[in-house]
Design brief:
By secondary structure, this protein is mainly β. Helix content is 8%, strand content 23%. Bound molecules: fe (ii) ion (FE2).
Length: 160
């Protein structure tokens, strides 16, 4: 089953917000295929909280309401499985200081994942770790049904 994953970088920007996107293409996003039990694993950076763009009417609204423009750190997921409705969601990192004041009101308690700081010399995928690392685990619950998945986030190759 395919799972699309994407998140901001460690400066709080998505790849498409970077000038380098035109020449270097996507980053901090990928499609994974689960194993037969629906599990998948990947290594990435620990994303950070970030401000939404404030240079348009939304920014003016935020200014007028005296709210900050910050989103708590999170990772986006698009999960598809036969017999289930496609699930598009994001999972937030427990402990982020903006969890209670997300500028777009997207946080729900069930979307917050614990992130453990680990010092084990080996990560779960069997690779050696030269520095402390973090482990985030999350169980997705999907609603039975059918539905068309949204257009994939990654560009398709011509022979796909
Ligand atoms: Fe986001």
């Amino acid at each position: 089953m395919p799972v699309d994953v994407w998140h901001a970088d460690n400066d709080g920007y998505y790849d498409s917000q970077r000038p380098s996107y035109e020449t270097e293409g996507p980053s901090s996003r990928a499609r994974f295929i689960t194993d037969a039990d629906g599990r998948f694993f990947f290594r990435t950076i620990l994303p950070c909280s970030y401000p939404i763009p404030t240079d348009g009417p939304v920014g003016e609204m935020i200014l007028q309401t005296r709210r900050h423009p910050m989103r708590p750190a999170h990772v986006h997921f698009l999960v598809n499985a036969p017999g289930y409705e496609p699930l598009i969601t994001h999972v937030f990192i427990d402990g982020d200081k903006y969890l209670d004041t997300d500028v777009v009101f997207g946080v729900k308690n069930e979307l917050i994942a614990k992130v453990e700081k680990r010092t084990d010399p080996t990560t779960p995928d069997g690779k050696s770790a030269a520095a402390p690392w973090h482990l985030m685990t999350y169980d997705f619950r999907m609603k039975p049904g059918e539905g068309a998945a949204p257009k994939p986030m990654m560009a398709e190759t011509e022979d796909a």
